[in-house]
Amino acid sequence: MSDPIPRLPRALDLLAFGFGAGRSPKAPGTVGSAVAVLWFAVFASMPLGFYLAWVLIAAIAGIAICGEAARLMGVHDHGGIVWDEFVGQWIALIPLVPMLDWDLRSTLGVLIGFLLFRLFDIWKPWPISWLDKRVHGGFGIMIDDVIAGIFAAILLYFILPWLPAAEAGWYGVAS
């Protein structure tokens, strides 16, 4: 049986553990990314400039959030700290913001963006693996997910034109 995850000060706990997603007993990073997609549905209606500013603020704040949570827990990058997954997932989905209509193409794009981010976050190809091993503190916790998000966003950008477009109405169903 694994040790229980300690409680942190309320606001820090809420953010670092991704509104509770990081307390999932199985695959907290994947659960955190899924919860981040739900928040993406809220933030994606912003104009692109506001969305990018929000993600930048979340990333900078994440350095402090993740760093302080790790310090209080005495663990460099505890699996339950998922604010970094939130930010990485939001970065991965940037190519969708200008065209998001919740039609077939953009919904498939969200799913593919989620899967691509999880792939890069788990696989950790170079330079993600190098950064993950050598950069510490809050910045170290954040940077590998930021880079995984950038890799996923680039790939998603080139995949999006190949996805099927819906005709009229939601999922191609005429009203």
Give a quick set of tags describing it.
mainly alpha, 175 residues, 7 helices, single chain
Kindly report the oligomeric state of this protein.
Answer: single chain
Strand runs, count: 0
Helix content: 55-70%
Order of SSEs: HHHHHHH
Number of helices: 7
Q: Identify the overall geometry.
A: globular
Distance between the termini: 53 Å
Radius of gyration: 17 Å
The percentage of residues in β strands lies in under 5%
Query: What would the average pLDDT be, to the nearest integer?
Result: 91
Structural class call reads mainly alpha
How many domains comprise the coordinates? 1
Main sheet properties? none
Low-confidence stretches: 170-175
Describe this structure in words.
The structure is a single chain. The protein is mostly helical and 175 residues long. The chain has one domain (10-155). The chain has 7 helices and no strands. It has helices spanning 10-16, 28-43, 48-73, 83-92, 104-123, 128-134, 137-159. Helix 2 (28-43) runs antiparallel to helix 5 (104-123), helix 3 runs antiparallel to helix 4 (83-92) and helix 4 (83-92) runs parallel beside helix 7 (137-159). The radius of gyration is 17 Å and the shape is globular. 40% of the residues are buried. Mean pLDDT is 91; it is low at 170-175.
